[in-house]
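Might you be able to review the protein record set out just below?
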Amino acid sequence: MENVGKLIAELQEMQDNGYLSDALLRAAVRKLKESDSRYDWVGVYLLNHEAGELWLHNYVGAGTEHAKIPVGTGVCGTAVSEGQNQRIDDVSTVENYLSCDPDVKSEMVVLIRNASQIFGQIDVDSKQKAAFSEEDEFEVKMIADKLAEQIAIERA
């Protein structure tokens, strides 16, 4: 992704100017989607601990019927249940995969977390197999960490 530093600086400026996490989450999703042609769908799910579900906050891309995802289900739910980011080169190999678009071939989920506390995740789908590298994951994690910083401030 080009200009990850620029996006983080923009998010920091928004934070400094008093924008809340809702605005930062929306900006991050929009800018991430625009940043790379491999990113066909980008969204944020926030974790509802009480319900044990991920709730769709916002997204850019084709519509989805998965507004709520149980923890442990699909790539998104697995990321939370295992407490680890997910990079899936071929979604057809995932037994409990939740398909939103039959053309999606790979998926990357990066947790929005503060230490062990998971707030949610950034979910990126691609119509290309093996679309995401370790570097892509690292860059999206930098953005997720900036979002987690704001969410932690608001929930303190």
